Amino acid sequence: MAQPGTGSAAPEAFDPDAFQVVPARTFEDLRVGEVFRAPSRTLTDAHAAAFQTVSADNHPVHYDAEYARRHGHPAPVVHGLQVLAFTAPGATLFPHFIGEVFIAFLELSCTFLKEVHSGDTLYPALTVTALEPRDENGVVVTAATIHNQRGELVLSGQHKYLLRRSG
């Protein structure tokens, strides 16, 4: 084997279209029970402030500690939609697996089970719960979950994606 930079071997042509993070899979390759995790993330006041700015949700329960306490919360509450955003498929490797067969994100639902506060660490995951073939396409149903650092389930929901089938 030639040493890098010695010029003894011709370099292979680089094809950006063939550059993949993980091997591509099809609808038929997916299995019920597969889990696609996102990296854990500790939320900070900066995250909450950025989301408040982007969402324009300026309710004081999200940034005023005294208001939050007066209304029964131990600290300002992280926006629910911000917590939900951590279940985005792109936060996991899932889109890298199905990138070429992905058609659409069809729907989502969720239930907020526990409050999330600055300093909490979230552990999001998508688990395939159903694979529904439909003609030349298929629907992938996933359970979307987020646990906190105490092992508490803070969000439970469902996503549905439309994928092209291979056969």
Automatic annotation (TrEMBL):
Domain MaoC-like per the UniProt entry, residue ranges: 32-144
Family listed: Belongs to the enoyl-CoA hydratase/isomerase family.
Protein name (database record): MaoC family dehydratase
Protein's organism: Streptomyces ziwulingensis
Native organism taxonomy: Bacteria, Bacillati, Actinomycetota, Actinomycetes, Kitasatosporales
